[in-house]
Structure formats: C-alpha cells, structure tokens
Target: Divalent-cation tolerance protein CutA
Amino acid sequence: MFQVVLCNCPSRVVAEQIAEQLVTEQLVACVNLVPGITSVYQWQGKIEKEDEVMLLIKTTAEIFDELSARIEALHPYEVPEVIALDIQQGNNAYLDWIAGSLK
Model:
C-alpha cells in the first residue's frame, strides 16, 4: 500500500535536511516542501501558534515504521507529527516509480 506521510517542521532548513536524508536513505521516493503553514495547537497546557513547513512524503506502508523512527531521530520536536494517509488510487506509472525508488 502506498502512503503519503505528513510531517511539519519548524523551518525550511530543517525540512530540507530531513527530506534529503530520507530520500538518500531510500525510505521515501519524494518529499514536497510546503511553506507557509501555520499550526495552532495545545502543548503542555498552552495554546501555541507556529509558522511551519509541511513535508508531503511519498512511501509505502511496509516502510512506515522505519520511516517514522528515522523522522523522530532527525526531527528537533519532542513529539514530531508523523501521520500516514493511504493512497487509494494513483497514476500507475507514478506508483511504480515510488516503488522503484525505495530500498
């Protein structure tokens, strides 16, 4: 099963570092960086509002656990967002490319 994994980062520099490492390690086929995200959330009893960069990560469910652990190791947040969404349908050639890009 192919997946899109979401992960927000505190800056473009951090987002690029994580994305490049994940691609290099062949845990992901592609990462899109989406700047300009504003997150509003509760953390340790306070309402927080932060500008972030979202990573849209393309991988497979079989690699998710390893990918999640690697993101946690690379990410500066105490509890990084790592949420997987299953891809229900997609361009077959693109999905084949994802599969061929992973270890």
